[in-house]
């Protein structure tokens, strides 16, 4: 048990979730390393949701609400850290959830499928019995996608996604939204909307934004999306990293 | 196999070493997370050995050479990443090597002991049959130390060390040298000499420095040590972190 008084309580709690997920067997071998990288960047932004991140979240939610077939892509890390929050966001914006693993194994897919089912979410895509298509001519796991999910999606939210896979998704012509604590990562640079934040803070915040934006006209949502410049916003995100004590 | 042409080849190689060590069972649960944090900071300094790091290494080696009983403290991560380099440095500066695990279990100690023995290094301290003393009144693993090693050491090199343990070592009056990629970490701030570098680059570099400094008079080594200001050097280290692309 981590005492609530510990100065690193929130961070240690997430670390604990990752350790438990690793023991359950549904994380990739290097998943913990990716989490550690995120921890470092989160530390450098003061473990708070910055203004550029909030701006990107408004744009992301507006884009999801405007889409015909929005999909949230989940992997082991996203599931370990924020499975309930992801389901809530999906329900709120009317998005599908699809399991997409860069290092896909049947075992990992099975365990993750069960985690969503145990929470009452039965519509999960990308499962072992789902119809899988490929986004490129090369039929590998980096390009696999559920036929009714990411394969036919117009907007895909990819929290904590590998750069190679982000690139394939982008090249397939989809609107890509990422949540990634590293504003210099390939995924952040390649995405249409890059939210530099910890997913445990970002996803519930996006659900709140959705409750607000759902009451707005389509025209308003389109303005939010069109006014946004991701490159500029990433620059502002980078400036949030404070190196002085 | 990672192709040598991969832009992240060196980083992926280290990641691979960590994954293998985890499978061998001698890493702490959150060891991979710590490695990921290091990766992020290494990325931010351009994965190169900076000038302030080199300066700190000269001071560290001089201090080790001047000490009566210098000890290099090793844990799972240090062993996974640089076991051979650590043995070379220890032989070069005449330091002992001691296994010191923040999350100490007999199994982990046994596996790590064997790794050093398999490389022909039989003098390793901190093993299961070593005499263990405590640096504080509270007899826990954070304060444990080999009687002929850290317990009686004047200078201790603690690469990749936890902040709690660094604090206990410091309070016990020893001269502390750390190798830590995060210049803001408690360990970096608490140490007498903080080398902000990746241990796989730092340790072989320190061995080279040792070959040079061993030919110098004691007076020269003392001047190197006395001229050094760790706080100032940490500030300069921090300035090496480049956030602009």
TrEMBL record, chains A, B:
Its EC number is 6.3.2.36. It catalyses: (R)-4-phosphopantoate + beta-alanine + ATP = (R)-4'-phosphopantothenate + AMP + diphosphate + H(+). It is an enzyme of class 6 (ligase). Pathway: Cofactor biosynthesis; coenzyme A biosynthesis. Keywords: ATP-binding, Coenzyme A biosynthesis, Ligase, Nucleotide-binding. Belongs to the archaeal phosphopantothenate synthetase family. Catalyzes the condensation of (R)-4-phosphopantoate and beta-alanine to 4'-phosphopantothenate in the CoA biosynthesis pathway. This is 4-phosphopantoate--beta-alanine ligase.
């Amino acid at each position: 048990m981590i005492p609530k008084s510990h100065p690193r309580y929130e961070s240690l709690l997430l670390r604990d979730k990752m350790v438990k997920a690793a023991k359950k067997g549904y994380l990739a071998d290097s998943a913990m390393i990716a989490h550690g990288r995120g921890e470092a960047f989160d530390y450098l932004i003061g473990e708070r949701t910055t203004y550029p991140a909030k701006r990107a979240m408004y744009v992301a939610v507006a884009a999801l609400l405007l889409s015909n077939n929005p999909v949230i892509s989940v992997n082991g890390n996203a599931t370990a850290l924020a499975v309930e929050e992801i389901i809530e966001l999906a329900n709120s914006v009317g998005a599908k959830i699809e399991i997409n693993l860069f290092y896909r194994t049947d075992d990992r897919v099975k365990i993750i499928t069960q985690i969503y089912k145990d929470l009452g979410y039965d519509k999960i895509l990308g499962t072992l019995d789902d119809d899988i298509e490929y986004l490129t001519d090369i039929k590998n796991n980096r390009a696999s996608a559920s036929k009714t999910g990411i394969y036919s999606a117009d907007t895909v939210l990819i929290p904590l996604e590998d750069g190679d896979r982000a690139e394939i998704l982008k090249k397939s012509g989809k609107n890509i939204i990422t949540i990634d604590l590293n504003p210099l990562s390939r995924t952040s640079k390649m995405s249409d909307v890059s939210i530099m934040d910890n997913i445990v803070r970002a996803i519930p915040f996006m659900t709140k934004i959705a409750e607000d934006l759902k009451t707005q006209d389509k025209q308003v949502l389109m303005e939010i999306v069109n006014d946004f410049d991701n490159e500029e916003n990433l620059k502002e995100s980078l400036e949030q990293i404070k190196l002085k004590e």
